[in-house]
Amino acid sequence: MPAPAQAVKAETNASQQPFIPEQYVDAPSQRLYILSIGLLIQAIKVFDWLQSLIFSNSSTNLTFKWLLVDAVYLLTLKRLRIPRLNYAASVVCVQILLLWLFDGVLFGSVQIGVSRYSLTYTAREYYQNELSQGVQNLFGGDNLRGEHTVRMSPISTARLNPGSLSFCLGAPSNFVLVPILLNNTKPSHIRYSIRQLGSEKVENVDLNTRDLKAIESTRLESLQLTKTAAPQQAEEYNEDDWDEEDEEEAPPHTNLLGYSNYDLEETQGISHLKISKPGIIRLERVLDAPTSNLARVLPNEITIAPCPQASFVADKISNGDAIRCLGESEELSVKLVGVPPLSVKYFGETNGQREYFSVDQIEGKPGMEGQAQELRVPLDMSFDVAGIRQYTLHQVYDGLGNMRTLGSLPSTRSPDEKTPTPSEYTRSVTVLRRAGVSFKDCGPGKPSSLLIGSEAHLQLASRDTDPKDSPLAVTIAYRPPSTNTTAKNAVSPWRKVISYPSGRSSFPINVTAPGEYSVVGVKGQTCPGDVLSPDTCKVVEEPHPSAEIELKRIHECSGDTGVSAYLVMQGKPPFQVHYKQKRNDEAEKEMSRVFQGSRGDITLQPENSGRYSYWFTHLSDANYKRIKLDGPSISQTVHPLASASFVFHGATGTGNRRAINSCSGNTVDVEVDFRGDSPWNLELQVSGPNGVDTIHLPGLQKSRERIKVPIPRSIDDEGGSFQIDLVSVEDVHGCKKALAVPGMSVNVRRVKPSARFYSQTGQRTTTVLEGKSVQLPLRLSGDGPWRIKYQRTDPADLPRTTMIHSPNDHLSIDKKGVYKLLEVSDSQCPGVVDEEASEYTVDWIPRPSITLSQDSVVTYDGYNGSFIRAPICEGSDDFVDLDMTGRPPFQILYNVARESEVGGTRILDQPVISSVQSRTRLQLLTSQAGRIFYEIKQIGDANYPLAQNKDHVIPRNDRLLFEQSVIGRASAQFKKSARLSHCLRDTFVPSDPLSSDDIILLDGQPPFSLDLSIKSLATSHIHRETVEIREAQWKVNLPKYIFTSIGPHQVTIEAVRDASSCKQSVTDPLRKSIWVDVAESAAIVPYDRREHFCVGDVAQFQMEGSPPWTVGYKVNKKYHEQVAKSSPFILTPQQPGNVSIVSVSHQHKMCRSTVENIEFQVHALPSAQIANGRDYFEDIHEGTYQAHIVFTLEGEPPFTFTYQRSEAPARRGGKPGKVLESHTVSGVMEHEYSIYTALEGTWTVTFISDKYCRYPPVSPEGSGERSK
Fold first, then answer.
1. Which of the four pLDDT bands, split at 50, 70 and 90, describes residue 911?
2. What Å distances lie between residue 45 and 41, 62, 103, 724, 1261, CA to CA?
3. pTM to 2 decimals?
4. How far apart are the first and last CA of the chain?
């Protein structure tokens, strides 16, 4: 280890070693010594504190002394570094602060709020004022002895519906059992009244004992049936555990049973009223059977109304018409019956996806408050998703707190549950997709072939076909070809409907005639369908194949080397040519050759010499097989040139023929490469459906020539395909060579691709929710993919281009406006846009709006765009009406803000209110004074609920703003509750301009009118004065008032008024008044001029001057002296005799003055006993006997004593309960007094006084009596 590191480590170890090495004093001994010293210090501290209580030493010096001692002790402990007592510096600081806090509480004055607390002063006051009384209670606490307890049977009472439950009536045959709590009563007769809802008609109903027994029997039978039918529910809703929350969750039969097992006392019981008609029930009288007395009926009434009902109104769905088509919507109507305001909860479910809704606070008709009403609430069903859409009513609430569960949530039903939700609470529809039908593998530019004498099979394809909507009715139209209208076997146009069966993606149609077939209509069993593209299919009749064969001998300047057959074939490739060969006298051989194009050549160059014969027999193409061919024959005895070929730039296909496309013009350009010596003479052949044309092109000079080839007229008119083949080429030497090179196939398109917007009704408009994407249907023709160029024209936007891969695809749009198709092109050619169907209008469903009702009395402020409501006093009720547009129910989110004192506003709340009506009432906030602002931030309706549009808020410039000034009620209070000091004959003006003790704070609108009262406790004189103030705070300044008497004066704020007409607010009683001490120099004044005191009484004296005071007094001519740090000075005589005040001084015994005429006599305390000082129990019966209670009095008459009656204890030896009544008897000259009573309770004496004294004595503060 390096030397510096070792030095640092050694220094660290040295700093952690004890200050006193352990070789002199070990660590445990050091801990014992230092902790013993600490305990000794704390013991001395407690001794000093007890000494200060007895001898009234100055606690300030003791405080500083012990603060210093504790700090030195803890710092010394830190310095000694004793193991296990060596704390960190932060811990030592905390220890010092805790001990200082303890010293401050024990000796000093710890500031707590605006008051000062000193344990020394508190203990001294207790020692001086309470200790003597405690000794008195210890040795002479038998001044008031004895108890007389009278017990009797409880009072008969009856209370209707003790649990404040809610009851309602279901079906007309149902009833409810309303409980009556009886105390010490066995009813023989009960009378109750029923007042009809909405009427003053009252009906009285009397029940006798038989009726009550029948009701109880009905209750028990219903309870037994319920337990038998549903033991689990009976256990869950046990009557012993019933509470108000169970009422909401209980089964419907709960209201029938009543409630019998309350937590009853021994004298209590339960009876029930069987109510079967709605009304306001009131218990009028109950007759007790044993005593034939009327029980006391505690006032209470209960409103019983029909249970709230909710059900769907009968409509098409309930009548069996429960199938709808995608994109439709329907409005349901819910019938609500009950006492408004009503609320209903329901949920919707689509293919397992559930949403929850509620409509709250549905108000009823004006003038029918409190009555059951029938209301209608609209609910909207939108069918935008295929599947099963179901709405279920879940719960309904009325204005009396009754709730009824209608349809249960699917998740709460067990898998084995058989009972579904009744149809009146649910509406379920099946939403079907719209089927679409088109031709498959056939369309414009892609006709279907028809062979002569056979049938063509056209395929129909369907999409999005629902089995419940099958079979489909597809309307097919036929139009014969225009070239055959004059033929004898011409077919007339027709239209027929075919049935497209269910479950098939395609369906064949067999046709026997050429022409154009079109799908013109699609109709399902319920929903209309769509005609998809391609919707037309052209059927073309294919002719038999034919061939023109030219045979030539192969002669290469040296003779014949074979035969070359040149074939020109008509039909649909590929072609297969069958021919035979015979050599000399050998047998014939049949051979064939396949050609992919309409032209071909066969070179027959046998390897052996001889005479050969060749002839052609049959021809096959793609449509027909082995058609007999009347071809040429040749016989021959079998004994390099210029060439040319096509250049295939941009051509498609492989093999012997490549294809190019032609979209416009009557010629097509092809390029030919020549080999040999120029110029060349070229012969080419154009093969079309109606024949073959040969074109001679002489004198071609370039090695690559672009040649314009005319398109055959028949193909140029209607489109199709034709072939171009090179026949021969002749060079400059005159050598001509026949060519058999790959030809060129030309596809001529005369049917241009097209594009249009599709609409079944012809109206190309749609309305969707704002921000939702919409799919605009397209119908395209041609060969995909298509390139579509479109533009939003209103409002104007830049053109856009998109690729479409299906002829029935959609254009995805997410903004409203008018969209126009500009251009279309498919994979081959540019196309045309149908101008009549080129525009589609997309509009948004308008969002809900909100305005202030015209009935609201407001003033518009154009500066900030706010409506100003008339000012109102704080705490008053006010509201505004709001009008809304949209589809109910509505939700309104608004901000409530208050003008801040430092400028700006502060948001107080952001509530949400709901309304099913287009007008709602918004309650204004008047509980806080100030300028209150209201800002409508968001509004939602059925189309745009707030839960799904949280990010959409009303633009700040468009928000509805209104405000109101809430005028605060005027108030006034003293800033501090400190005591003021004044001298005798001073005017009531501020003595210290910098002090804030006498400042009054005023709140409200100046100017203020302040009513003050000044009461002198010495003279009981009250001076009242009204001051006009224009500031928010006022320093008490009453120059007209002069303090003419010494002692405390109470200055009280009686009333305050400001410029508004609002009532005064309640002032804090602690800040409503202050005290002013008026004193002379070094004077002592008794609170009362009594000449007679009692042992333990408190003699209070008002001290005048500056504390502390030193008071000298004599007790039975023995001189005593006591220091008073505060006024009043309290003296408690502990023995009978003569007491006199002889002197008083203040300011550390200065200004001493001799006191005369303050002298009084101290007397012993009187005593009283009940039942000779014993605890006596006596039982009586009500109305038959009265208890005799005897009071024994000791002292000097006349006596005045107070006795009280408390609740009797439950058992002997128990403590009495709360005090029920108290009485005072005066002027008793005898030593015994008695009373008679028939009331139950425990009788005790709480107070007695004789001629001079009283017991218990008055408390030192003189504010009440001390209890025993």
1. very high
2. 6, 9, 9, 129, 31
3. 0.49
4. 81
